[in-house]
Amino acid sequence: MSDQDIRGVSVKKGEPVDRALKRLKTKLDTEGILEEMRRRRAFESPTQRKIRKMRTAPKRHKVRWRYVSAGQEAKAEEAAAARAAAQA
């Protein structure tokens, strides 16, 4: 196993353990490990899975569309122009 496979934090000299624990929890939360662990704890029906995915979709899409390349922007402008021409 490489060092990247092991998730953890090192306690710095003089640092309280609770602060290191908070850093660990934050790290696990940002990586989505805690959410996945909670999700796998019990059976999830297909309907519940669909509802969960629909609930998290806006967050995923917000991150996806935050960074728009020049090509994507040009394509969006072309599509808007085509819609305007079709309506006129």
From TrEMBL:
Keywords: Ribonucleoprotein, Ribosomal protein. InterPro entries: Ribosomal_bS21 (IPR001911), Ribosomal_bS21_sf (IPR038380). Coiled coil: none annotated. It comes from the Bacteria. One of its GO terms (cellular component) is ribosome. Pfam families: Ribosomal_S21. Belongs to the bacterial ribosomal protein bS21 family. This is Small ribosomal subunit protein bS21. It comes from Haloferula chungangensis.
